[in-house]
Amino acid sequence: MTATAEGANGVFAYNGATINIKDTTINVTGGNAGGIEVAGGGNLYASNLIVNSTVKAAIRSDRGGGHGC
Questions:
Q1: How many structural domains does the chain have?
Q2: Positions of the chain with pLDDT lower than 50, given as ranges
Q3: What is the pLDDT at residue 63?
Q4: Cα(48)–Cα(30) distance, integer angstroms
Q5: Kind of pairing between the strands at 59-62 and 42-53
Q6: Using CA atoms, how far apart are residues 56 and 68, in angstroms rounded to an integer?
Q7: Structural domain includes residue 64
Q8: Which residues contact 37 (CB under 8 A, 6 or more apart)?
């Protein structure tokens, strides 16, 4: 998975949405973008990832927090 646009996170869950992701490489190079973002009560279930992010954190939580396993 590749995201190159300004503010384009590779994967994003918000408002109770759930991300289930495994065995994936995420490359993010856009300004103000992170590899994976979980916010507003989103949920993240992840394993065996390679996340390359040149600007923001590879995995982050914002605006209301999120949950990860």
A1: 1
A2: none
A3: 73
A4: 23
A5: unpaired
A6: 18
A7: no
A8: 9, 11, 12, 13, 59, 60, 61, 62, 66
| Parent domain of 9 | 2-59
Sequence-distant (≥ 6) Cβ neighbours of residue 48 within 8 angstroms: 22, 23, 24
- The label of the residue with tokens 């384009």 reads 8
Q: Give the number of C-alpha atoms closer than 13 A to the C-alpha of residue 45, restricted to the C-beta side.
A: 5
Of 50, 41, 51, 3, nearest in space to 19 by CA: 41
* pTM of the entire predicted model: 0.80
Q: Which has the closest alpha carbon to 54: 29, 37, 33?
A: 29
Sign, CA dihedral 25-2-69-7, equals: positive
Length of the chain: 69
